[in-house]
Amino acid sequence: MTNIKPDRRALFIVNPNARNGRKVADDVRKTLEGGGLTLLEDQIGKGETVSDIILRRRSDCDLIVLGGGDGTLNSSAKGLLETGLPLGVLPLGTANDFARTVGIPPDPLKAAALIVSGQPRPMDLGEVNGQLFFNVASIGFSAELAAQLTEKAKKRFGKLGYALVAARLLARSRLFTAYLEHDGSTEKIRTLQVSVGNGKYYGGGMSVEETATADDGQLDFYSLEVDHWWRLLTLLPSLRKGTQGKWDDVRAFATTELVVKTSRPRPVNTDGELTTWTPAHFKIVRRAINVHAPPATTR
């Protein structure tokens, strides 16, 4: 028995540039409509964000069904926060880190079935300088990687694209100085990268912290204070598990608000896109959106 009423209207948006966007759209439509949803389709126009569409069509629909990757989700955050409309996610991107964090099936058809059979539950969002993010915001190496990794490369090479560009960047990466202000203290650090996570996964399966969730009401911070780039090779297994905070050259803590300052402005990468610059003021936005995802106890 479905929990979605037959007369519910879903604003259906699929990013046509998503890596798997065109392959499954027709089958996904059948699953959603077969589950009792009336689909109101719209497309992302030139110079338009997903949030623009959501805000424009807010009175036409009862929920948003969004197909794409983490960048597409990021583009929807403002609209979801302002309207309060629940979100159904179809993971069609390269990494789909948010979907993995909250337990949404990687198979788009199974994700569609979850949308028509499940109940939405509240999730947090991160915010930096007014820019919302689902997964992680970072300064340093990851931001440089985001600048170098083009949409064409991501679509053609998938996760391999991250590795190819990352290897080239690592060979010339250098530490930079940053100042952290959090929980009543100020710290000066030398780091290759700082990351601030709302959820657990980012960057194609890397983990901010092994116990992090997208509904725990806190941000998880870590800083890679390594002497040599090759040190990251030994850290890689921990970075994937989210246990890097146990290493001596990785600073890690949980907080709800944080400011990162640098001697010159540095770009901030939010969910794979460069959206703002340092100084960067981070905070958690509790229970900001509602997402169709499995119950927390089943993850």
Explained architecture:
The structure is a single chain. With 299 residues, the chain is an alpha+beta fold. The protein has two domains: 9-118, Probable inorganic polyphosphate/atp-NAD kinase, domain 1 (Rossmann fold, 3-Layer(aba) Sandwich); 131-286, Tumour Suppressor Smad4. It is 28% helix and 34% strand. It has nine helices and 18 strands. The protein has helices spanning 25-34, 50-56, 70-83, 97-102, 108-117, 141-148, 151-157, 159-170, 231-241, and strands at residues 9-14, 38-41, 63-68, 87-91, 120-128, 131-133, 136-140, 176-182, 185-191, 193-197, 201-202, 206-207, 219-224, 250-255, 257-262, 267-270, 273-277, 280-292. Strands 6-5-18-15-8-9 form a six-stranded antiparallel sheet, with helices on one face. It has a six-stranded antiparallel sheet with strand order 14-13-10-7-16-17. A hairpin with a 2-residue loop joins strand 5 and strand 6. Helix 2 (50-56) packs parallel to helix 3 (70-83), helix 6 (141-148) packs across helix 8 (159-170) and helix 7 (151-157) packs across helix 8 (159-170). The chain is elongated, with a radius of gyration of 19 Å. Residues 1-5 have low confidence and may be disordered.
Primary descriptors:
2 domains; elongated; Tumour Suppressor Smad4; Rossmann fold; six-stranded antiparallel β-sheet; alpha+beta; 299 residues; single chain
> Which sequence of strands runs across the widest sheet?
6-5-18-15-8-9
Strand percent estimate: 25-35%
Assembly status: single chain
Portion of residues in helices? Answer: 25-40%
Quantity of strands, as a count: 18
Secondary structural class? alpha+beta
The number of helical runs is 9
Secondary-structure element string: EHEHEHEHHEEEHHHEEEEEEHEEEEE
| Name of the CATH class of the largest domain | Mainly Beta
Distance from first to last alpha carbon: 22 Å
Low-pLDDT segments: 1-5
What's the average pLDDT? Answer: 87
Main beta-sheet annotation: 6 strands, antiparallel
CATH topology of the largest domain: Tumour Suppressor Smad4
Q: How many structural domains does the protein architecture include?
A: 2
Radius of gyration: 19 Å
Molecular shape:
elongated
